[in-house]
Amino acid sequence: MSTIEFELIFEVPEVSGPGDPRIEQVEEHLDIVVQSHSGLTLATVTADGAEVLAAALNAAHILAVCGLRPVRSHPDLVTRQDIAERAEVTRQAVGNWVRGERLRTDPFPVPANLVGGGVWLWGDVVAWLRRQGHETDDLEFPSLSDHTRIDSALIELSGDLTQPSAAVRGARPSNGCEITGFVKLAGERTATLYAPSGTDAHHSLAGESFQAEYGLAV
């Protein structure tokens, strides 16, 4: 069965800094970027799955057994300025999109919230950009309904997150983490607080190894 690579964000316990051993343990199995803002710690990961819930639960299991148990998923909400920067266009262009100028047959997604002039779910924006022929990466993103499904599953699993699931059964220990399966790394992550400056394209938990250099992004 073919798999899809998803980018997922989880709220996780506070970390001590870029050298936190839990981050290093997760890095052996997932591409992860950790950000901390005023007591809120977010872990952005990429994970494969036949669909988004399977990928999210696999990632949540890995985070949990490495000591970064997810509290909940976190929607990637973006402002007009965020959209302009990520899509590499001017803010004026984004304003035209939002107002529906020149694109009445396929209107821009509705905002997820009207706070601060509107914020949009990044996955909705990416899907729209692709329909307009804009170049985007190959990652998929959860919808708002997907976030509801993921959070409901996390609540239902509760204390079972650290137990082997169908997606990760047959684990073997590695630096304190029991993980199994095959995870495709998304490559270089550079835009936030803790990020590897380089990784191999693939990492197999059956015996391959990879090296990563870490730095504090400023």
Question: Summary?
Answer:
The protein is an alpha+beta fold and 218 residues long. It has 6 helices and 12 strands. The protein is globular.
**Order of H and E elements:** EHEEHEEHHEHHEEEEEE
Q: What structural class do the secondary elements suggest? A: alpha+beta
Number of strands: 12
**Termini Cα gap:** 40 Å
Average pLDDT taken over every residue: 79
Please list the strands of the largest sheet in the order they lie side by side.
2-3-1-4
What count of helical segments does DSSP give? 6
Instruction: Give the fraction of residues assigned to helices.
Output: 25-40%
The percentage of residues in β strands lies in 15-25%
Q: Can you tell me the overall shape?
A: globular
What Rg is obtained from the alpha carbons, in whole angstroms?
18 Å
Overview features:
single chain; alpha+beta; 4-stranded antiparallel β-sheet
